[in-house]
Each structure stands twice: as structure tokens, then as C-alpha cells.
Design a protein that fits this description.
The complex is a heterotrimer of chains A (265), B (210) and C (217). Chain A is built from 13 helices and 1 strand; from the N terminus they run ααααααααααααβα. Chain A is an all-alpha fold and 265 residues long. The C terminus of chain A is likely disordered. Chain C has 217 residues and is mainly α. Chain C has a two-stranded antiparallel ribbon with strand order 1-2. In chain C, a hairpin with a 2-residue loop joins strand 1 and strand 2. Classes of the chains: A mainly alpha (265), B alpha+beta (210), C mainly alpha (217).
Chain lengths: 265, 210, 217
């Protein structure tokens, strides 16, 4: 039940509340470039959703099994060369950006080849957008969000699983499609309007996006309200206390004490 | 054929391979040089707040010369069949338990709010509150950062759950909600109430054990 | 090679005539996302300068060894490495800033400015020209995003570099530091630059070229 609530909140957050384009500003390039006609915009949206899902799957797998400290695959491979306890502490997160970008661009290449060979009609409808998508920030942004929810969490059991990652990616893509299709609809109408010369093209698109972003801000708070309505707090049952290893304590003692009064940085 | 294919492959890709090895070495070097600093930054971010949350800002300065020991703990609380983990910092001054600081998070209006809460050893009153991370609306919800508003929580008893009220707070357990940001105010008090409910038992037990 | 622009020309071009953000509409993602205040805009510029300079110089050094069909892989690999370095560096020495910028530092990898400069300039010209081009383009990028950040920070909070500049009676236009403010400011700025270009284009060409040549001498 709580898992289902989690999924609903992630989906809602990615598609509407924190819309990729209008809240995080990722994927602006196609948003400005391919939003002249509704059918093209929809094709682009579908292509992004498709690629983002594949990229999310790959990056989730790589992060969980290879990159995260103590990941099973890297531990197993390192186990052949170094003692087991060194292998357990192996941390490859520094390589994450390189790995993600290479994974994204090669998967886009493969998808393009596969689709062109086996589904020519599909290739005709959105294949032309595929190469453009490699440098679309939205894809890498989804990978990074998934990574920060696996590597950056205090509690290992709260790390995102495959389901959550895929939901984020799919609904992030849906949110992108919603935004770009609405934009294309508005721009088709704008062609008939008398826009001042300097604002034609990107200028008016940005101002319209500003108004759309304002409208999408109306969704803020929906998730907190929904979460309150769906979850009922239950009293705690049992507790367990674990002491941290010695390194943490040493680090703690080395800390310089603060002198400035408390103010938020 | 195969041998020829192989040479062909290397003549094409040797540059990529050489670059990959060079960059790999560069990154490994970076990690060795900067890794410890980054780790320390992450720990210090919460740790350097701990003394003032337990002893108060003025007192924490005097104490910094004398011995103070901070020990990070991880407390797991079983709740509805799931384990919820809290990062708790046990603070000792001159060998005696002085208080606890816990990191806790919850859903705010816009996004997650992450706060540090200071308690006395028996978890009977709140000794400090600090907002680590929030993305509330600037000018409304982000007033939870202001020292004036956070100051209300100082010395509040944890016996009764805290309740934010609009207008003037009267009873001991009431907190002034920020005008225009009732949800953010409620989010912070809810995080505190949940943390108190979850941690009171395990922490008092541990305090008695010493 | 004779008709390739010189180092000075590349440098000048990056700042306004071919400004990456305002004229070529590249790198819009950071231009909108990190411009809520001046400090983050400048940190972002620094990171872009570092990555673009290193990527351009390395690409230029190996330009004769590049195989055409493998060049994008080489560019991506180089850029991703230097972005990682910039990211780690910020995390080590400017921790709060790196938390504020969050995913937007790694997103420099897919920032079209850098791959475009590698492709257009660095893979064809010498190290010196590539370096000058990187600095010029980064200054152009910095100017554009600082302009947006200045407007947003002053109107949104009444501060400039966290120092109050507007009277306390100023009602903060909170919307300016929120996402819609970024779109609106940027849209108006594009309009302004386009208007300026049309006005300038109507004047004789000689006047426009003069400042560039006098600086080159």
C-alpha cells in the first residue's frame, strides 16, 4: 500500500508538479525547436518518453549493480584482484556521469538502428528525432535523479528500486509531452497573431512558457495534500540502535566547532 | 579475416582507448585527492550544527574549548512492518550525556523538508531546531528558515504533540503558524512530532543504560 | 584553412555577435535554471569556462588523429571527464554551492555549447585559437546568464550578490526567483537583443566592425 502511494506521488510529481520542462528547465532545446506543429511535438514527446524509459532502466541497473559503494557486480569483479574487505568498499560513483552519457548515446544508436530495421513506419513517425535526443538534458536529468535517490540516501533500504525509477522516467516523459503539445497548440494560434518583430520565435515562446509555468505552479502542494490524505501514521513498535564504525567518530571529533550564530547558508 | 578485423578495430579505436585510460587515471587521482574532503564536507554539514542545537548558540562557543564528544548513531524504528531509520547524534560533554540531535525529513508544501532537532537527554524538551534543506516558496514557506520562527520551538515540552495555530499561540504546545504558509509550518511540526513519537522510547532507554 | 577566423575574431564573436545563449539559443537549460541569484550564475559560468576550455584545448591537440565517425564519442568522453572534475572540485571546496546547483553541473555534459564549439572550432583550428574561442564563448555565456540573474535577483529579492540594493519598502517580486520569472526574463531579453540587432543592422557596416578591429590591433 505505501509502495503504491509512493509510486502515485512520484508519477504525479514528475508529470505535473515538478514538470521537467516548466519546473526543472530540462529539455528546453526541443521544447523551443520542435514545438511549431502539434503532430511534430507529439512525435518528439513520444520519442523522448521512449528513450528516457530505456535510459532509466540502464542507469538504474548500472547504478545499483556497479556504481554504488559495495555494489554486487563491482565487488565480485574486484574480489579477484584485491582482498574481500577492500573490494566491499569499492566506490565507482565518480565515473557515473561518463557511464550515463555513454549509455544514453549508445542506447539511442541501438534503438535507432533497431527501429529502422524492424519497424519502418514507427521509424518514419519518430525516428528522425532520435539522434537529437542524445543531447537532450531531460534524459540525463532523469538518470541523475535516479542516481541521487540511490547513492545519496542515508538509509540503504530507502534506495529506489526499478519500479520507482521507471515510473519517474515514464511520467517525466509524459510531463514533457504534455508541456510540448500544449506549447505547440499555443504556437499554432500565435502564428495568426501580430507578434512584435523582435519577439517572433524564441522570445514569445519563452514568455508563453513563463505563463504556462505560472499555471503549473498551481499544482504545487497537491502531493503533500494527497500524501496526508492517503497515509495514516501508525505508532512505532520496536527500535534498534546501531553504533557507527570508528571512522565516523574520528571524523566527528575532528570537526571544528562553529563560531557563527545559527543562520541558514 | 579475423586478424585483419582486429587490426582494423585497433587502428580505428586506439585514440578512444588511450583517452579513456588517461581520463580514468585523472579521475582516480582526483578521487584520491578530493574524496576525503568531500566526505568530510558531507559529515560536517550536519555535525557542525550539533553543539548549538544541544547547548544553544551562545553556550556552544564556550564549550568548544572543553571536551565535547559527538557520536553518530543509526536508530531503526519498526513502523507498520517497515523499518524507518534515523541518524541520531549523541552529544556528551565531560563524559556526561548532554543531549541528542536527530536528522529527520518529511513532506513539505513543495518538496521534502529536512531538519535537525535537538533534544535533552530524556527527550522531554526541544533544545534546538535547524532547517537543513527545503524548497518551499520564497517569501512565504521559506520563512521556516528564520531564527525568530524557529525560536518558538526552544524549550517546548514534548509531552503533548505540538500544534500550529493561526493567530496567537496561547497554550504551551501551540506554535504560531506563518501567515500564508500554514502547510509549511504544519509540515515542520509534524516532522518533529513524528520524530518524538518514534525516538522517545529508544533514546530514553539508551540514556538510562549509561 | 585560410578563411578560418583568427583567435581574436573567435574571442570577439563569442561575446556578442555569436553569443551562445542569446544568438545561437544553446545552453538554455542552465541559463534558466541557475539564474535565481548572481552567485550561482557566476559559479556556473566558472564551471562552463573550465570545461569548455579544457575540452577545446584537448580536442584541438588531437584534431589530426580524430577519426570522423568516432569524434562525437571522443568529445563526449572528454567533456564528461572534465565535468566530473569540476563537479568534484565544487563539492570539495564550495559544498553549499554544489548542493544549490545540484544536477545542473553534470548537465553541462549535454550542454550544446560545448559540443558545438568542439565541432565547429576546436576540431579544425590550432590550440591557441581554440583556447581563445573557449574563453570568448564562456564570457558571452557568462554575460548572458549574469544579465538574467541580475534582473531576477534584484526584482525578486531586492538584493544583488546578497547585498540589499533596493529600499526595504520594495515588495519582493517572488515570482522572479521562481521558474516563471526565468522564462519571462529570458523571453524579454531575447526580444531586446533581437531589437538591438535590427537597429544596428540598419546602420553602416563599417561602424559595427570598427570596435573589433581596434581591439585586434
Amino acid at each position: 500500500m505505501s509502495y503504491l502511494i509512493d509510486i502515485i506521488l512520484i508519477a504525479l510529481g514528475a508529470a505535473l508538479i515538478n514538470n521537467f520542462v516548466l519546473h526543472y528547465f530540462v529539455g528546453i532545446c526541443p521544447f523551443v525547436g520542435v514545438s511549431r506543429r502539434i503532430d511534430m511535438a507529439f512525435g518528439m514527446g513520444c520519442a523522448v518518453t521512449f528513450v528516457i524509459t530505456i535510459a532509466a532502466f540502464i542507469s538504474w541497473a548500472i547504478t545499483t549493480f556497479v556504481l554504488v559503494p559495495g555494489a554486487p557486480l563491482s565487488r565480485w569483479i574486484a574480489g579477484f584482484f584485491v582482498p574481500a574487505e577492500t573490494a566491499a568498499g569499492i566506490d565507482l560513483t565518480i565515473l557515473s556521469y561518463i557511464v550515463y552519457i555513454l549509455a544514453i548515446s549508445s542506447s539511442v544508436q541501438f534503438v535507432e538502428m533497431y527501429v529502422r530495421k524492424f519497424y519502418p513506419p514507427l521509424y518514419k513517425s519518430f525516428g528522425v528525432y532520435l539522434p537529437l535526443i542524445t543531447t537532450n538534458c531531460a534524459i540525463l536529468f532523469a538518470c541523475l535523479t535516479i542516481m541521487s535517490n540511490i547513492v545519496g540516501v542515508d538509509d540503504p533500504s530507502a534506495a529506489w528500486d526499478l519500479g520507482r525509477s521507471l515510473i519517474l522516467a515514464i511520467f517525466g516523459g509524459v510531463g514533457f509531452t504534455i508541456a510540448i503539445v500544449i506549447m505547440a497548440g499555443i504556437r499554432e494560434e500565435l502564428d495568426l497573431c501580430d507578434v512584435p518583430e523582435p519577439f517572433k520565435g524564441a522570445g514569445i515562446t519563452m514568455i508563453v512558457s513563463g505563463i504556462m509555468a505560472l499555471a503549473f505552479m498551481g499544482f504545487t502542494g497537491v502531493d503533500s495534500g494527497l500524501k496526508k490524505a492517503l497515509t495514516a501514521e501508525k505508532p512505532s513498535a520496536a527500535a534498534r540502535i546501531e553504533e557507527h564504525p570508528a571512522e565516523a567518530i574520528i571524523a566527528a571529533q575532528k570537526t571544528t566547532m562553529p563560531t557563527a550564530e545559527q543562520s541558514h547558508p | 579475416m579475423t586478424a585483419q578485423g582486429k587490426t582494423h578495430f585497433f587502428s580505428q579505436a586506439w585514440l578512444v582507448l588511450v583517452l579513456a585510460i588517461c581520463f580514468g587515471g585523472l579521475l582516480a587521482g582526483m578521487q584520491i585527492v578530493l574524496g576525503p574532503t568531500i566526505e568530510a564536507n558531507k559529515i560536517n554539514e550536519t555535525l557542525e550544527r550539533v553543539p548549538e542545537l544541544v547547548f544553544g548558540a551562545a553556550h556552544a562557543k564556550e564549550l568548544s574549548e572543553t571536551g565535547m564528544e559527538i557520536k553518530p548513531l543509526s536508530v531503526g524504528v519498526e513502523k507498520a512492518g517497515k523499518t524507518v531509520r534515523y541518524n541520531v547524534y549523541e552529544t556528551k560533554s565531560d563524559g556526561r550525556l548532554a543531549g541528542w540531535v536527530t536528522k529527520s525529513a518529511g513532506q513539505g508544501y513543495a518538496d521534502k523538508i529536512e531538519i535537525l532537532i535537538g533534544f535533552d537527554p530524556q527527550v522531554e524538551k526541544i533544545t534546538g531546531l535547524f532547517v537543513l534543506d527545503q524548497k518551499e516558496t520564497p517569501g512565504l514557506g521559506n520563512k521556516i528558515l528564520e531564527a525568530g520562527w524557529r525560536g518558538q520551538f526552544l524549550d517546548k515540552s514534548t509531552a503533548k504533540p505540538l500544534a500550529p495555530v493561526k493567530g496567537q499561540a496561547k497554550a504551551g504546545h501551540e506554535i504560531d503558524a506563518i501567515t500564508g504558509a500554514t502547510i509549511s509550518s504544519k509540515a515542520v511540526t509534524d516532522i518533529i512530532n513524528t520524530a518524538v513519537a518514534d525516538l522517545r522510547q529508544p533514546l530514553t532507554d539508551k540514556a538510562k543504560g549509561q | 584553412m585560410a578563411d578560418q577566423p583568427t583567435a581574436t575574431e573567435r574571442f570577439i564573436q563569442g561575446i556578442l555577435p555569436e553569443n551562445p545563449v542569446l544568438r545561437q539559443l544553446l545552453g538554455l537549460c542552465p541559463a534558466l535554471a541557475v539564474t535565481a541569484n548572481m552567485k550561482s550564475a557566476l559559479t556556473m559560468t566558472g564551471a562552463v569556462l573550465f570545461v569548455l576550455f579544457c575540452a577545446n584545448v584537448i580536442t584541438s591537440l588531437i584534431r589530426n588523429l580524430l577519426k570522423p565517425h568516432l569524434r562525437i564519442v571522443v568529445f563526449t568522453l572528454t567533456i564528461a571527464t572534465f565535468v566530473t572534475i569540476a563537479d568534484r572540485f565544487l563539492a570539495a571546496y564550495l559544498y553549499q554551492m554544489s548542493k544549490t546547483l545540484g544536477p545542473y553541473i553534470p548537465l553541462i555534459i549535454v550542454n550544446c555549447i560545448i559540443i558545438c564549439r568542439c565541432e565547429v572550432c576546436a576540431s579544425k583550428q590550432s590550440v591557441f585559437v581554440a583556447g581563445a574561442d573557449a574563453i570568448g564563448q564562456s564570457i558571452g555565456f557568462g554575460l548572458a546568464i549574469s544579465a538574467i540573474a541580475a534582473v531576477r535577483e534584484i526584482l525578486g529579492t531586492g538584493n544583488f550578490f546578497d547585498i540589499p540594493v533596493l529600499p526595504a519598502a520594495w515588495p519582493d517580486w517572488v515570482v522572479m526567483v521562481l521558474p516563471p520569472g526565468a522564462f519571462l526574463t529570458f523571453g524579454l531579453l531575447i526580444g531586446l537583443v533581437n531589437w538591438y540587432e535590427t537597429v544596428r543592422a540598419q546602420r553602416p557596416v563599417r561602424e559595427v566592425l570598427e570596435p573589433a578591429q581596434s581591439e585586434g590591433a
